[in-house]
Amino acid sequence: MEMLLLGVWTLLALTPCPGTTEELFEVSVWPNQALVEFGQFLTVNCSTTCPDPGPSGIETFFRKSQLGKGPQWNEFVLEDITEISVLHCFFSCAGVQKDTALCITMYQPPEQVILDLQHEWVAMDEAFTVKCHVPTVAPLQSLTLTLLQDGRELHRKDFMSFSVASQRAEVTVNVRAQWENNRSNFSCHAELDLSPHGGRLLHGRSATKELRIFEFSQSPQVGVSSLLEVGVAETMSCEVTRVFPAQEAVFPMFLEGQELSPFSSWKGDAAWASTTIRAMETGDQELTCLVSLGPVEQRVRKAVHVYSFPPPVLEVEDTYLLAGTDVNVTCSGHVLTSPSSTLRLQGAPNISAPGEPAWFLFTAREEDDGRKISCEASLEVQGQRLLKTTELQLHVLCE
C-alpha cells in the first residue's frame, strides 16, 4: 500500500497542471493589419513565445510559400490576393494549440469611373437619366460616388450599408430638362476611403459629358413655285419656327437627289435657308428640305413640274425696209416647247391653231417707220396659262 501511494504521488508530480502551459505562451502575427491591392502579394510572419513549440503553420486559401523558419517563427508570402479574407496563424506548445487571426483587406482603386447620359440631346421638359458606375472597386463599403453638374454636387451616394460584395457600384439620378440645363457639363467623382484600414483616400474621376437641350416641334415649310421653267433660276426657301437652338439647325436641300448649296440664317426661335435651283430636265420632279437639329430631323418634300417654254420665234425678211416693199411676217412656236403653244401675231387676221405658225403680209409705208410687231405665245401647264412675247421694230426708209 505504501508503494502504491508513493507511485501515485510521483505521477501527479510529473503531470503539469491544467491551463499552466496555455497561460505561458502566446501566438502573434505581423503585420497586425493588412491592406493589399488586388492581385498583389503579402508577407506574413507568425511567431510564438513558446520555448519549444510543436506543429505550426498558417491557414489560408491563398497560394502560399514559406520564406523562412526559426525555432519560434515562420514567415510566408501569400500570392495573388483577390478578395477580403481572414488568415489564421497557429502554434502548438506542450500539446496545446493556439492561433491568432489576421484580417486581410483587399482593395481596388476606382481607376475607371464611367458616366452615362441616357441621351446627350434631350427635348425640353423631358426627363433624362444621369448614371455613374465603377466596374471594379473594393471594398465597396468604403466607396462614395458624387454626381456633379457644372462642378456643383447633384447627388451623392455611399455604400456603407452594402454587405454583399457583388453589389454594383453605381448611382443614378433622374433630371427634367430645362433651358438652364443646356450645355451643362456632367461628371462623376469617386472616393475610396481606406483610412479605417490603415490606408489613404483614393480618387477617381469620369470624363465630362455635355448635355444639349433642344426644341423642335414644328414641321418645316418649303417656299417655291410648283411650276419651274427648265434652265431658269428659281429661289427655294425652307423655314422652321419654334426651334431651339435655332442657330444650330442644319438645312440640307435636294432636287431629285442632287444636293443643293443653301444659305442659312436664324433669328430668335426661327431658322431658315434659301438656295437657287435650276432644273435642267422637264417633267415631274421632287424638291426636299431636310432640317436636322441634334438627334432629330424632319423632312418635307414638294413635287414640282418642270416645263420648257422658250419665247416664240418672230421672223421678218429685214427690219430696215424701203417704203412700198412687201413684208412677210411669220411667228412660230419654239421647237423646244412641249406641248405646242397657241400664237397670236399682232396684225394677223386670226389666231393660229396650236402648233401652227401665224403670219401676215403687208406693204411697208412711210408711217410704218418705228412700228412694233409682237407675237404672243400662250401655253397651259398644270392648269396655269403661261404667256411669252417676242417683239421687233420696223424701220421704213423713203427713196
UniProtKB/TrEMBL annotation:
Residues 1-21 form the signal peptide. The gene is LOC101987848. It is found in: Membrane. Keywords: Cell adhesion, Disulfide bond, Glycoprotein, Immunoglobulin domain, Membrane, Repeat, Signal, Transmembrane, Transmembrane helix. Residues 220-307 form the Intercellular adhesion molecule 1/3/5 D2 domain. Pfam families: ICAM1_3_5_D2, ICAM_N. Belongs to the immunoglobulin superfamily. ICAM family. This is Intercellular adhesion molecule 2-like. It is a single-pass type I membrane protein. Residues 23-112 form the Intercellular adhesion molecule N-terminal domain.
